[in-house]
Specification:
- By secondary structure, the protein is α+β, with helices and mostly antiparallel strands.
- The protein folds into six domains: about 5-60, Helix Hairpins, CATH 1.10.287; about 85-310, D-amino Acid Aminotransferase, Chain A, domain 1; about 315-390, Nucleic acid-binding proteins (OB fold (Dihydrolipoamide Acetyltransferase, E2P), Beta Barrel), CATH 2.40.50.140; about 430-500, Orthogonal Bundle (DNA polymerase, domain 1); about 505-585, Orthogonal Bundle (DNA polymerase, domain 1); about 595-664, BRCT domain (Rossmann fold, 3-Layer(aba) Sandwich), CATH 3.40.50.10190.
- About 35% of the residues lie in helices and about 20% in strands.
- The strands form five sheets. A five-stranded mixed β-sheet has the order 2-11-10-3-9.
- α1 (about 5-25) packs antiparallel against α2 and α12 crosses α13 (about 450-460).
- It binds adenosine monophosphate and zinc ion.
- Adenosine monophosphate (AMP) binds near residues 114, 170 and 223.
- Adenosine monophosphate binds near residues 80 and 134.
């Protein structure tokens, strides 16, 4: 190989690794190996400037300084979007569309509305030639040097791309990346940034691209502009762009009705908080490009697209008091008690303040006028203070040093945001919290017993741990407030019935820290009974699939405390299930060991949940979304089209219910 070939092959290799790491989130070599190859390429390029290539992966590290960002005209205008806030708005829009298009079937592509800074990237012959901010839609700033440092922006495309086109997207900061940036700033004594969106947008106009390169920016793409692109639908735009190497989120969905669009919107209104980045709504687009052309544009926005905004309504009100809640693990949560205010249709009196750092960061003080916001979360949060309304004699909030319930001095471990009350055996809300967890639906699911009754039973001295529930008698319970013969009987019967709850749920119910539902299942399966688990060593525990150091330590700690051992012994004597049943043992195999399944659609002979259980009982894993790690997709009727395309594009085999059963 001559030098030029060597340089080119290194460039190709690094490009592929960048793609795997930043677009697919699936690196195949270590960071160290990547750095070594990059260094090698840098060295060769420095020695041979004659082989300069503006698309070389070495240009990702930045270093170009832009003093003045040149203004450039967009070849294709960048439009705004019209906003809608309700199902009615969307239905009105659909009617307007139908009136123009006449009696044809209209499909919609739904995407999330990524909250960042919009960008237009121009590609010629597969190479990124220019990146321009939206500006006023007609012209924007040339920020190419900065955009080139964003690793999910391909400098060189793959596949069969059109010779020339613009692609539009949003530059965002992931929430994780943003938090990390702020952490570093706080450690360096600098003020943290306000929000990911403004920070992403500000990053584009930094003069030194090396600084941009250090920021965890990403580019999510959603539309293409150009001539003769040979694409007939928006959904195809997304698929094509993906195939050329762009990062295009896969949550997009093809919908046939406004009903379906609303389902998508409602789903993401709640679930968007699990996404790694911020979104502020859904963008609905008429899928067929021909329809789009027929519909055209208003002065500002396309008639064929509509933004549906999530309700992140906010209000201002006065903070009357900060109180502190103690959870079942002893974690302290500060709560803002507010002057009642109407927000997104409900009256809000309380909001979470998360932890001491959050209070300090916002500098919230009693008496302040604060901004309250309610997104998809159930508990509203305080997003800021109206400093213009602060009285001159207000003093900074001092975080409590002792437990508000038991007065024990609070502790805060290295690297943890939360303060804790360490008095786990004597602190009332920790005691009742553990019992409430024990009886909860996913644990022992005790009918006839609720959280308030637990508090009452504790206050009356009838129970001080969950084992005590099993010795309660009807006669003891009847005299309690709001109890009657019938409800007392239900309670006692409910407790008795819980003795049949299977071992893995009993294990979850014990409330061992970090042992959630899934971990409890894993442990039950691996150890089969509690006696084996109680004597398991650290090495044995971490050898179990998905059990890490933290969980292992917590399990060992739990079973080393005499009070816990005593309670477990008592529960055993009452007849609770502390080992897997004969049936469970018989039905478990390792036939699917090492395989990961995604289940989609409706099945004939088995429910989805039973199917998932069957997979787990036979040693397989169930994942919720398809990735290259998925071994098989088990597809029933009505499998989601996006799952199907995703599986196909990743080459993951799709098997039927019957084929799956055949594996067992
Ligand atoms: P607005 O700024 O409220 O007029 O909203 C329009 C902007 O939404 C566009 O300029 C894009 O920057 C942004 N946007 C975010 N996600 C999408 C998406 N999936 N499709 C189209 N536009 C989007
Ligand atoms: Zn306490």
């Amino acid at each position: 190989m001559n030098i030029e070939q060597q340089i080119n092959s290194l460039r190709d290799e690094l490009r592929e690794h960048n793609y795997k790491y930043y677009v697919l989130d699936q690196p195949s070599i270590t960071d160290f190996e990547f750095d070594m190859k990059l260094k090698e390429l840098q060295k060769l390029e420095a020695e041979h400037p004659e082989f300069y290539d503006p698309a070389s992966p070495t240009l990702r590290v930045g270093g170009m300084v832009t003093k003045n960002f040149e203004t450039v005209a967009h070849e294709h205008r960048m439009y705004s979007l019209e906003n809608s806030y309700s199902k009615e708005d969307l239905e009105d829009w659909e009617k307007r569309i139908q009136r123009i298009l006449g009696d044809v079937e209209v499909e919609f592509t739904c995407e999330l509305k990524y909250d960042g800074a919009s960008i237009s990237l121009t590609y010629e012959e597969g190479q990124l030639v220019r990146a321009v901010t939206r500006g006023d839609g007609f012209q924007g700033d040339d920020v190419t040097n900065n955009i080139k440092t964003i690793k999910s922006v391909p400098l060189q495309l793959k596949g069969d791309f059109p010779p020339k086109f613009d692609i539009r997207g949003e530059i965002i900061l992931t929430l994780d990346g943003f938090a990390k940036m702020n952490q570093e700033r706080i450690e360096a004594g600098e003020d943290p940034y306000m929000n990911p969106r403004n920070t992403a947008s500000g990053s584009l106009k930094l003069q030194d691209s090396a600084l941009v390169a250090q920021r965890p920016l990403e580019c999510l793409l959603y539309s293409i502009a150009g001539n003769n692109l040979g694409i007939s639908s928006q959904f195809e735009v997304l698929e094509k762009a993906r195939s050329w190497g762009f990062k295009v989120p896969t949550v997009a969905k093809l919908c046939e009705s406004t009903e379906e669009v609303m389902q998508f919107a409602d789903h993401w209104d709640i679930n968007r908080h699990n996404l790694p980045y911020e979104t502020d709504g859904v963008v609905v687009k008429v899928n067929n490009i021909q329809h789009q052309e027929e519909l055209g544009y208003t002065a500002k926005s396309p008639r064929w697209a509509m933004a549906y905004k999530f309700k992140a309504e906010s209000a201002t009100t006065v903070l009357n008091e900060i109180t502190y809640q103690v959870g079942r693990t002893g974690a302290i949560t500060p709560v803002a008690n507010l002057e009642p205010v109407l927000l997104a249709g409900t009256t809000v009196k309380r909001a979470s303040l998360h932890n001491a750092d959050q209070i300090a960061k916002l500098d919230v003080r009693v008496g302040d006028t604060v901004f309250v916001e309610k997104g998809g979360e159930i508990i509203p949060k305080i997003t800021g203070v109206d400093f213009t309304k602060r009285s001159v004699d207000s003093a900074p909030t001092e975080y409590i040093s002792n437990c508000p319930e038991c007065d024990t001095e609070l502790i805060r471990k290295e690297g943890e945001a939360q303060h804790f009350c360490p008095n786990d055996t004597g602190c009332p809300p920790q005691i009742t919290g553990r019992i409430q967890h024990f009886i909860s639906r996913k644990a022992m699911d005790i009918e006839g017993l609720g959280g308030e009754t637990v508090e009452l039973l504790f206050k009356e001295g009838l129970i001080s741990n969950y084992a005590d529930l099993y010795t309660l008698t009807k006669e003891q319970v009847i005299p309690l407030e709001r109890m009657a013969e019938k409800s007392a009987e239900n309670l006692v019967n409910g407790v008795a019935a819980s003795k049949a709850i299977p071992f893995e749920r009993v294990l979850f119910a014990l409330g061992i820290r970090y042992v959630g539902e899934t971990v409890a299942k894993k442990l039950a399966k691996a150890y089969k009974n509690i006696d084996a688990l109680m004597v398991a060593s650290h090495e044995e525990l971490v050898a179990v699939d998905e059990i890490g150091e933290r969980i292992a330590e917590s399990v060992i700690k739990f079973f080393s405390e005499p009070t816990n051992l005593e309670i477990v012994e008592r529960l055993k004597s009452y007849g609770l299930q502390f080992s897997l049943s004969e049936e469970q043992l018989e039905n478990q195999t390792d036939k699917l060991k090492g395989l990961t399944f995604v289940v989609s659609g409706v099945f004939e002979t088995i429910s989805r949940n039973d199917l998932k259980k069957l997979i787990e009982d036979n040693g397989g894993k169930v994942a919720s979304s398809i990735s290259s790690k998925t071994s098989f997709v088990v597809a029933g009727d009505n499998m989601g089209p996006s799952k199907k395309t995703k599986a196909e594009s990743l080459g993951v085999p799709i098997i039927s219910e019957q084929e799956f059963m055949g594996k067992l």
